[in-house]
Amino acid sequence: MNPVDDPLEAVTFSYVAALENLATALTGRTQRSPDGTLFAMSGAPIASLNGIVSPLLSPDVSQISSLTSLAGAQRLPWSIRVRGVPDRDVAEVAAAHGLTRYERQPLMTLSSRSGALRELTTDPLRVRALAADELVLYAETVAAGYQVPREVFHVLANPSLKLEGFSFYLAELKGVPVGTGMTASTGGQIGIFTISTLPEYRRRGYARMVTAEIVRRGFSAGADAAYLHAVSGAAESVYASIGFETQEFMTVITAP
């Protein structure tokens, strides 16, 4: 399949490359199949950051199946991720490994040439890029934003991520951390990840502001487009208000 047949090929392969870079920096546990299907383990106890992902519109179940033994041996939550609705063969491979819970995540994109990025003021919110020695603070703030134990996101404190195209941003009010955002730069695209707001600062538009600001910085640095996966309907609405458009969705298959 070529980009004419699949207009999102550049986006989905960039997403897979970002996951590969993440795992390369954190654990070194990655493997690619000939068609681009990826096995990658971040080491975090988060199923969506471990396992197998296919960038193809029509995933090759044999390639997915060949990687399941690697994923299953890691003793961490893991997932199989495919575009659109998994066919019966993919579902059977997933079920054979206890993966029977399905989550649909909209894939949203925004072109740097579209002129659709909404202008949002960040005053008095300050969004700043973090240095490698500040990533412990980042990981702790992400965990607080998602309301999970800090150990869940401890892998994001690894300074080597800065060498693999990842950038980390902290949103602050008068020096107090209130939110986060992370970008991954691969193939002329920027992926947007870990957008979070601390519970006591929600419903003030900070997630919108952080997302818009880090996308703007990515475009200024030369990225052609931005992409993200919305984890809820509410999140999808927030990103749409900035200018992102839903193109399709990814199915994440995990254990119940």
Automatic annotation (TrEMBL):
It holds the Pfam family Acetyltransf_1. Residues 125-256 form the N-acetyltransferase domain. Keywords: Transferase. It comes from the Bacteria. The keyword Transferase applies. PROSITE patterns: GNAT. GO terms for molecular function: acyltransferase activity, transferring groups other than amino-acyl groups. SUPFAM superfamilies: Acyl-CoA N-acyltransferases (Nat). This is GNAT family N-acetyltransferase. It comes from Streptomyces liangshanensis.
